[in-house]
Amino acid sequence: MTDLSLERAADGRFADSGLGGSTAGDYIELLKPRVMSLVVFTGLAGIVVAPGHMHPVLAAVAVLCIAVGAGASGAINMWYDRDIDAIMSRTAKRPIPSGRVEPDNALAFGVILAAASVVVMGLAVNWVAAALLALTVGFYVFVYTMWLKRRTPQNIVIGGAAGAFPPMIGWAAVTGGVELPSILLFLLIFLWTPPHFWALALFRNGDYTRAGVPMMPVVAGPEATKRQMLLYTLVLLPVAAAPYAVGIGGLAYLIGSSLLGLLFVLCAVRVLRATDDKPAKQMFGFSILYLFLLFALLVGEHLVTGGGA
């Protein structure tokens, strides 16, 4: 099935549904709130661990702008991917393919929110943070969604950069610049993203195959994907410990990140040896907890001690 026929099928599903009214909940769902929550937390962590002081009101505005920008990216992603979302069981009930929101309304909603988040960030906080936020939205929409996702199995490797920018944005909101510690936080999320999403792709392989999305398990096969997942978790170990080396993480963070990293590696080993999808599902769930706990350790240390070391 071609991209054009998929798009017509998705738009036809809306027309056949007979649903004309959308609820506020439908538009909230367009923002991908579950994905947004982790993005927002890592952005908040960037604000907390950055050197200097930021007024709580401005910090709240910065976090809100990160949240709105992330949500806007999700809405535009759903608008563009409505054709393949309609034939994937995991996404078929999303607001556009299920007919609850018209595609044009979803696009307008996303574009307006994206523009507003960048402008407010620039006017209220600073234009470095606003530029990074604009880069994040643009990278997710144009580089990942429109260019990479349907063309290469490296889609999530390169495109994962979009999800790695929020702590840099938070850092820049406080400092007005980009420095080594914020780059390390970026790299942490960047290297975490492939094993996280490939774990999902392993047990959702059928969905991606039907939709023609060249995720790594579809193109290279499960075994090659599992080996790469293990490699990424091993490389992630020293990168996750690096915040301690640059002074934004303390001893508690170093110990915690090392233990969590070893557990992540263990998950990858179990996936490599597995003959069913259960370990991949468990690794996907743990990967979310892993990233949340790493940044929670950083935030907790700074709130308790006023600094990492």
UniProtKB/TrEMBL annotation:
<feature type="transmembrane region" description="Helical">
    <location>
        <begin position="101"/>
        <end position="121"/>
    </location>
</feature>
<comment type="pathway">
    <text>Porphyrin-containing compound metabolism; heme O biosynthesis; heme O from protoheme: step 1/1.</text>
</comment>
<dbReference type="InterPro" id="IPR000537">
    <property type="entry name" value="UbiA_prenyltransferase"/>
</dbReference>
<feature type="transmembrane region" description="Helical">
    <location>
        <begin position="155"/>
        <end position="174"/>
    </location>
</feature>
<keyword id="KW-0472">Membrane</keyword>
<feature type="transmembrane region" description="Helical">
    <location>
        <begin position="58"/>
        <end position="80"/>
    </location>
</feature>
<keyword id="KW-1003">Cell membrane</keyword>
<keyword id="KW-1133">Transmembrane helix</keyword>
<comment type="similarity">
    <text>Belongs to the UbiA prenyltransferase family. Protoheme IX farnesyltransferase subfamily.</text>
</comment>
<dbReference type="InterPro" id="IPR044878">
    <property type="entry name" value="UbiA_sf"/>
</dbReference>
<feature type="transmembrane region" description="Helical">
    <location>
        <begin position="127"/>
        <end position="148"/>
    </location>
</feature>
<protein>
    <recommendedName>
        <fullName>Protoheme IX farnesyltransferase</fullName>
        <ecNumber>2.5.1.141</ecNumber>
    </recommendedName>
</protein>
<keyword id="KW-0812">Transmembrane</keyword>
<feature type="transmembrane region" description="Helical">
    <location>
        <begin position="284"/>
        <end position="304"/>
    </location>
</feature>
<dbReference type="InterPro" id="IPR006369">
    <property type="entry name" value="Protohaem_IX_farnesylTrfase"/>
</dbReference>
<feature type="transmembrane region" description="Helical">
    <location>
        <begin position="229"/>
        <end position="246"/>
    </location>
</feature>
<feature type="transmembrane region" description="Helical">
    <location>
        <begin position="35"/>
        <end position="52"/>
    </location>
</feature>
<dbReference type="InterPro" id="IPR030470">
    <property type="entry name" value="UbiA_prenylTrfase_CS"/>
</dbReference>
<keyword id="KW-0350">Heme biosynthesis</keyword>
<comment type="function">
    <text>Converts heme B (protoheme IX) to heme O by substitution of the vinyl group on carbon 2 of heme B porphyrin ring with a hydroxyethyl farnesyl side group.</text>
</comment>
<keyword id="KW-0808">Transferase</keyword>
<feature type="transmembrane region" description="Helical">
    <location>
        <begin position="252"/>
        <end position="272"/>
    </location>
</feature>
<dbReference type="Pfam" id="PF01040">
    <property type="entry name" value="UbiA"/>
</dbReference>
<feature type="transmembrane region" description="Helical">
    <location>
        <begin position="180"/>
        <end position="203"/>
    </location>
</feature>
<dbReference type="GO" id="GO:0016740">
    <property type="term" value="F:transferase activity"/>
</dbReference>
